[in-house]
């Protein structure tokens, strides 16, 4: 790689290249975990999720390195970034699709990259890891509503109140449902870590460019702030209000 014209540009480049590498592994592990759940191999699925959690910690920590970039330093090379943006990361979108944040409107963004477009189209049509987990619970005797099992998996999962009593039963009878109970907590960890990563991204952007628009047509910090409202496993958080009542 040739030496960038500006000293601090190399930091920005390496940050994003390493993130893409880690996202590649996250995607590999999550897709495998979904397949293991489909085959009733919960142990292997949880092992894969555990690895993802360690990767998420690394991804979150590395924002602290980029945060050493001051607004003045960033402004010296920002114009050279052109339309580059994390918004255009196919692997990031793929991870969100596997976790359940499906959005068909994202596909046209990647039409110029046939390989990425094909990957995202495949994942859009495939069950998310949450879909696979709920199907796993149903096969193991728990009362998952038919509307959940038969839903259109190409759409983002919507909050389903009927799932909350199911999870309440699992949590309040953990000893009798230990595997399911453990899996629920692993998924909660996964979402918590994802949200921490998003939050550190937001704070790093605010620290570096304030509320200015981001590269690649994104709205910068405002876009990242809105992303914090997205959640993957709504019922696993809603059940916390119900437990003990």
Describe what you observe in this structure.
The chain is an all-alpha fold and 245 residues long. The protein is built from twelve helices and no strands. The chain is elongated, with a radius of gyration of 20 Å. The mean pLDDT is 90.
In short:
This protein is mostly helical. It has twelve helices and no strands. The relative contact order is 0.13.
Report how far the terminal alpha carbons are from each other: 60 Å
- Principal-axes shape call: elongated
Q: Report the mean per-residue pLDDT as an integer.
A: 90
Beta fraction: under 5%
Tally the helices: what do you get?
A: 12
In which range does the helix fraction lie?
55-70%
Biggest sheet record: none
Radius of gyration: 20 Å
Unreliable residue stretches: none
Structural class: mainly alpha
Features of the shown structure:
single chain; 245 residues; mainly alpha; 12 helices; 0% strand
Give the topology, please.
Blueprint: H1 9-38, H2 42-61, H3 63-66, H4 71-75, H5 90-99, H6 114-125, H7 129-139, H8 146-149, H9 163-172, H10 178-209, H11 221-227, H12 234-242
Helix pairs in contact: 1-2, 1-5, 1-7, 2-10, 5-6, 9-12, 10-11
